[in-house]
Amino acid sequence: MIVAIDGPAASGKGTLGRRIAAHYGLPHLDSGLLYRAVALALIARGGDVHDASAATAVAQALDPQMLGDPALRGPAAGAGASVVSAVPEVRAALLDFQRRFAAEPPGAVIDGRDIGTVICPHAEAKIFVTAAPEERARRRALEFAGRGEPADEASILADILARDARDMGRAVAPLAQAADAVLLDTTTLNADQAFAAALAIVEARIGAPSRRAG
Ligand code: CDP
Ligand code: CDP
């Protein structure tokens, strides 16, 4: 079983992905970490995230061990990720890892921007999670504050809006709701309510008569 979760920045994809994966005993991949890792590795070696060929070389040599680095969660990695992720060769270099992760039995829960549209178009369940930008900025600010990091809500909102625009506007694998994805707006839901709603979506999909018959 593959569950694909897509949505804009700080919509709660990762949190939902982790909880759904734990519920079904499936491995979870936060695909955003791949793009964050490319950006961070590039910055660490003094490179420029706007240098497409340097970003491609880093993506092609990416060590998946890097995905555990806590620095990946910071805003610099997020902003850099949305620049390098617009480079088609960077996306191509990271495709194989994601497809192999999904293909491994017993399945996977993967969250990102293009999971339901490009990486796993045949996923059993697809959720497109969203929330109002102001609410997403509020959540991310709380998260940063909880880690003792600077958390200016206005600049977080500006970063989120810029990232959404870049992710939706790019030519290759833009952020978009797959035709067969179910929209989940969590603006007025807490994390537990969002999890319950997401679980109901997955259950409805995997329990659907057409699937049971097949
Ligand atoms: O992965 P993504 O950037 O989409 O979001 P996240 O890191 O999973 O979630 C951002 C923050 O929102 C986390 O601190 C969650 O606890 C919180 N949150 C949520 O995920 N869902 C809600 N309905 C309410 C809050
Ligand atoms: O957690 P948050 O939603 O803030 O970001 P993320 O999921 O870690 O993704 C960081 C950036 O990587 C996004 O803004 C996208 O540009 C890019 N990304 C992508 O292009 N495709 C994916 N499947 C996942 C992330």
Automatic annotation (TrEMBL):
<dbReference type="Pfam" id="PF02224">
    <property type="entry name" value="Cytidylate_kin"/>
</dbReference>
<keyword id="KW-0547">Nucleotide-binding</keyword>
<keyword id="KW-0418">Kinase</keyword>
<keyword id="KW-0963">Cytoplasm</keyword>
<dbReference type="InterPro" id="IPR027417">
    <property type="entry name" value="P-loop_NTPase"/>
</dbReference>
<dbReference type="GO" id="GO:0036431">
    <property type="term" value="F:dCMP kinase activity"/>
</dbReference>
<comment type="similarity">
    <text>Belongs to the cytidylate kinase family. Type 1 subfamily.</text>
</comment>
<dbReference type="GO" id="GO:0005737">
    <property type="term" value="C:cytoplasm"/>
</dbReference>
<feature type="domain" description="Cytidylate kinase">
    <location>
        <begin position="3"/>
        <end position="202"/>
    </location>
</feature>
<feature type="binding site">
    <location>
        <begin position="7"/>
        <end position="15"/>
    </location>
    <ligand>
        <name>ATP</name>
    </ligand>
</feature>
<keyword id="KW-0067">ATP-binding</keyword>
<dbReference type="InterPro" id="IPR003136">
    <property type="entry name" value="Cytidylate_kin"/>
</dbReference>
<dbReference type="GO" id="GO:0005524">
    <property type="term" value="F:ATP binding"/>
</dbReference>
<keyword id="KW-0808">Transferase</keyword>
<dbReference type="GO" id="GO:0006220">
    <property type="term" value="P:pyrimidine nucleotide metabolic process"/>
</dbReference>
<protein>
    <recommendedName>
        <fullName>Cytidylate kinase</fullName>
        <ecNumber>2.7.4.25</ecNumber>
    </recommendedName>
</protein>
<dbReference type="InterPro" id="IPR011994">
    <property type="entry name" value="Cytidylate_kinase_dom"/>
</dbReference>
